[in-house]
Amino acid sequence: MNKTAAADVVDTPATEPDTPVDQPARSSNVDAIVSYFESGITPADAPGELGIELEHTLVHDDLGPVSYSEPYGVEWLLDQLEADFPSTTRDPEGDLLGVARPGEAVTIEPAAQVELSAGPYRNLDEALEAFEAFERKLSSVLEPHGERALTVGYHPSAKALDLELIPKRRYKFMNLYLGEKGPFGPRMMRGSASTQVSIDYWSTADCLRKLRLAFALVPLFSLMCDNAPVFEGAPRTHELVRTEIWRYCDPDRCGLVPGVMDPAFDLRRYAEYILDTPAILIPCRKEQWCYSERTFGEIYAERTMTRAEVEHAVSMFFNDVRLKTYIEIRPADAMPVPYVVAYAGLVKGLFYDAANLDALDELFAGVDGTAVEAAKDALMEQGYEAEVYGRPVAELVDEIVRLARRGLAEDERRYLEPLARLAEQRVTLADLAEREG
């Protein structure tokens, strides 16, 4: 597994050229992106590892938002964490934006959501220990000041536009661009919080297979990990709030990678998709980040992208499943740590067992992009009562839990139980929160 968290890329491209009629460097840029993906291939005899990211929403005891800049705000929190996480990241003005130590990075999202990116982990024991230790640390720092770190999918009290953006130039431009697309971009940036799990691949074919299967599983994972009972300060009006946010955030760079469910899809088509999408921002010498609505292909039309530029370009895509030098599975809401580890165990049991990959191929045979989007619609409307891919979703969830148990070592199967119990009861964390009022 490659590193799960990296600092912003600040490689310096040449001054943006005038938009060319054609792209002389097109082929070499496709090659550069494909080479970047292929550099993530892990030796076939290596154990599969997991990277895990969990975002936290900081609130006062009355559930009001905690901002970056206020007294005992998120900047202050990062300063308190620095003794344990001594490697720091600051912007050019000196604002503290992240702290880290080997294997763990604490960063902040656009409205000061606090993210722990950790791993890679070969076993779930280590993951549980690390994330529980971080939760204890947050509680010890925040509670004396009347604050809490919640692991929920959407802010429990505030509307997104009322939340302060952190002082990060990258997010200023993203907010501008996505805000012009509609209301869901700012809601994604400011209001939402997620759990993400990253997995390895052993060949190009293995990579493409896991991508296709992960996209087919996205609606099921979204249901099982639904933990957003409140949206924009009011009770949600449908299931799977996160699914709606990401569907309408920016169709150019979210949801399905175009063509990914086609068995003939390859990494060159993925690279072309990246080149043909507006950049939003690129690294630049003068201001660190410069805004651009031109595509990456246009910006780098006359020269080959550096690896740093490729890394940045890939980071500007927010698909349900994202390929870097590992596969990042992204549809889950933020959840309490036992559920996060259960979700990581679910992913591990499904994707790191050869027989289970075969079983998933059979289970999702014939599922295309249209079917994935239809599954999202059905689940937002009906939850566990829906039919997905021609079967009751409850049956599909039972089957993937069964496969995951089979794919895990006996001593790790217990970690699945928090999610497995919810599935057996046909409820989600969001459902339970609604019942509790």
UniProtKB/TrEMBL annotation:
One Pfam family matching this protein: GCS2
EC number: 6.3.2.2
Gene Ontology biological process terms, A to Z: glutathione biosynthetic process
Keyword Ligase: yes
Ligase as UniProt keyword: yes
Catalytic activities: L-cysteine + L-glutamate + ATP = gamma-L-glutamyl-L-cysteine + ADP + phosphate + H(+)
Keywords tagged on the record: ATP-binding, Ligase, Nucleotide-binding
Disordered: region residues: 1-27
Gene Ontology MF, one: ATP binding
Highest taxon, organism lineage: Bacteria
Record Gene3D superfamilies: 3.30.590.20
Compositional bias segments (type: Low complexity): 1-15
Reported function: Catalyzes the synthesis of gamma-glutamylcysteine (gamma-GC).
Family: Belongs to the glutamate--cysteine ligase type 2 family. EgtA subfamily.
Protein name in UniProt: Glutamate--cysteine ligase
